[in-house]
Every structure is written in C-alpha cells, then in structure tokens.
Amino acid sequence: MIDLTRRQFFSAASTGLGIPALAGLLPAATGGLPGLPHFAPKAKRVIYLFQSGGPSQLDLFDYKPSLVKVQGTELPDSVRNGQRLTGMSSTQSTFPVVPTKFAFAQHGKSGAWVSELLPHTAKIVDRLTIVKSIHTEAINHDPAVTFLQTGAQIAGRPSIGSWLAYGLGAETQDLPAFVVMISPGQGGGGQPLYDRLWGSGFLPTRYQGVKFRSVGDAVLYLSNPDGFDAKDRRAYLNALGELNRMRLEEAGDPEIATRIAQYEMAFRMQTSVPELTDLSKEPASIFESYGPDSRKPGTFAANCLLARRLAERGVRFIQLFHRDWDHHGKLPEGLPRRCKETDQPAAALVEDLRQRGMLDETLVVWGGEFGRTVYCQGRLTPGDYGRDHHPRCFTMWMAGGGMKPGISYGETDDYSYNVVRDPVHIHDLQATLLHALGIDHTRLTYPYLGRAFRLTDVHGRVVKDLLA
Known about the structure:
Radius of gyration: 23 Å
Order of helices and strands: HHEHHEEHEHHEEHHHHEHEEEEEEEEHEE
CATH topology of the largest domain: Alkaline Phosphatase, subunit A
Largest sheet: 9 strands, mixed
Number of strands: 17
Low-confidence stretches: 1-29
Oligomer: single chain
Strand content: 15-25%
Helix content: 25-40%
Distance between the termini: 31 Å
C-alpha cells in the first residue's frame, strides 16, 4: 500500500498547489500496489450479478430428469448422509423428493441444459462458463452472503471489490473503483443487505464500495444546496482541505488523507455521475435488448445497463444485488418472476459487452449464496412446492474475462444434493476470479492484528479448467 508520508504532505502543502497536489499523491483515485498485477491479466474489471436469496439450481441449470420417477418419495439417508438442516425444515417428519415442474432443453453447440425460465440466457450458453459444483459451509443467508463477498462467514473482513480496489487501484479518477447497485424483486421481499457487504473491513476506508441510489441523486449529497454553486463548493472544499491538512499534520492519521481525497472525488463526481446516469443518448435498440424494465430506474435491467456504462468509464468492480430469490414456499409462483426480471438484462449485458469488444476484458459473474434442496420444504401439493437452503451444491455462471466459454463444469448426484465430480469451493472461486485479474490470491495480503490476511483466508486453489 502507498501511504501518504509526512514528507509528501509537507511537500504538497509547500508548493502552494493545495488539495489538487495532495490528491495526486493519494492512491484513492488511481494507484494500487506496486508489482500488481502479478502476471498478465485477462480481465480488467468485474461485473458481479449477485442473486440474493439462493436461486434453485434444480429448477434453472442442474437438470435431473430421473427425479420424476421418485417424486414424493423420501430422500434416501444415503444421500442426505446426516448433513445439517436449517431450523426451518429440521422439524419436518418427512422429506419428500420434488422434481422441477419446469421444462428443460439443451442449447447451443455446447448442449447446455437450461430451464424454460431462462430463454435469453439459453441463447448465450456458448459464451458462458457454467459451474454446477459450487459448495459452501454456510447454511443461512447472512453468513453465506458474507462468505461469498469477504471470504469469511463472520463480518469484518474486506469485500472482494475492496480487495481489488486496494490491489489494482482504479482506472479512472472521476468515478469510484467499486460501485454497488441494489434492485428489489417486484414482490418487495428478500433478505436484508448490509453496507458491510461492500465495506472495506480493516482496509482503509477509501477502498469501500459506493452505493448508487435509484431515487434522487445517485450518490448522497452530490448536488449543491440551493444558492450554493460549483464555485462556492470549490472554495468550501479548499477551506475544509486546509483544516483537514492541519489535523493530518497534528494526528498523522491516514484516514484524514482518505477524507481529503474522497472530498475531491465527490467534487469530480458532480460532473461524472450525472453524465453516467443520463441514458437519453442510448439508442432505442439498447433499451429493447435489455427489456422494458431498463427504462425504469432502480430495476435490475436499468442497473445492468448502468453497469455497462460504468465498465466503459473504467470502474474496476461493479456489483449488482437483486433480492428475493428465497423460495421456501410457492416456488412455482415466485421463481418465474425473479427470472423474468433478470434473465433478459443479464443476457443482454453479456451480448452488449461482446458487441462493444469489452467482454474479453470484463468478467461477468452470476449466482447467489447457495442453492436449494431437492426435498420439499413444507407441504407438497400437485401444483406447489418450496425448497430450503442447500449449501452442498449450487450453480453459478461466468462469461468473458479469461474464462473458457461454452462449458459446463462439475457434476452433482442424481438428487442434486452432493458434488460427485470437480468440486469448487467458495475460496476456489475467489482464487480463480483473482487469477483472471492477474492476481496471485496468496500474495494479495494485508497485515492486521499480527497476521497477513487475504480474501481466500488460508486455502483456495485456482480452477485452471475454467480458464481459457
């Protein structure tokens, strides 16, 4: 990490250049660690489409036609093998097997099986790297989401976007290196999402994600108050910067240097963000490709379009959270709604990036925090079923950014309950994503509390079979 030394501080102050010179010394806008990337990267940036709640792999990607023959029968003990249950189904006296009610078909040259709920994703399967053998230890939402985002189930570690901002810095001085957007499912439910999921943990706060809003200013306090123009803002920041520099000289706290740099970033964002979020110059064909919701601020479709615009402008890590995939009951009613909201825009994003020549250097990731059980949670009826959380196996896909397209990797048993071939642990996934960005996950570390921490904690391997 490049720290602002007292010598650098006094040098900037003595030149008379003030805050602009000081901001140039700070790594908040560009920078990154010396020596990174460790090797030539395939990807420059990541767009992570996080489906919060746990999409059902059985109903979307992991086709198990043989389950029809055992519908309604008890899940065999030899399959469950004493594995942990959540508190929501641990009191059930029976665990009836329920196959998907949705039709599957093979698509593309790769022949990937995809549910009828994802017709747009089905059209791009030859561009996707589908991994069916992801597994995790966490069985409840908060620790599972935290594990995927930070590499640990307990809160307090830096998020993956913060690690990248710290290690690689930013490609632009006019926007944050790490941007987050959240869209609710149209049902309005879903698990809560906390700011710490895109926080910097024990890293300096300049590396935390910036959440964009869909109502009012995209970023809080971006607009000047009435009667306060850009000239006033510049004078105000200069005066505030002088006070902060005095405090920095006195206390030597690097967080004060971060504060100065972030004020300068906010000033630049007063110009860059309105231009970014102004979609009026996008052609009608783009809105048509992303779907009707792309004209509605705050939807997943609109956020996918903004994600492409952020990528064009050099944002390093862009994360979209879409809520309400937690279908403990009424799955045949709720799952099609989430797919309708996300299928077309996610596929359109991949194609949009490809047509612009950006997909090769942009890694797109799609998936949730765990999968769903093959047995029914609650009462099984001819037309309705629900599924509980299932950490033992679930499906994610990736596109671009050095991943091998047109493959399905990993295999689960006939019940989509256990991984039987090519398991991919969460830390393996994280190590592989970092590798695509030119980072050796064992060498991207930060000293804290007497030890060197990293995203993948103390293990994790690069899954080389996923790489192009």
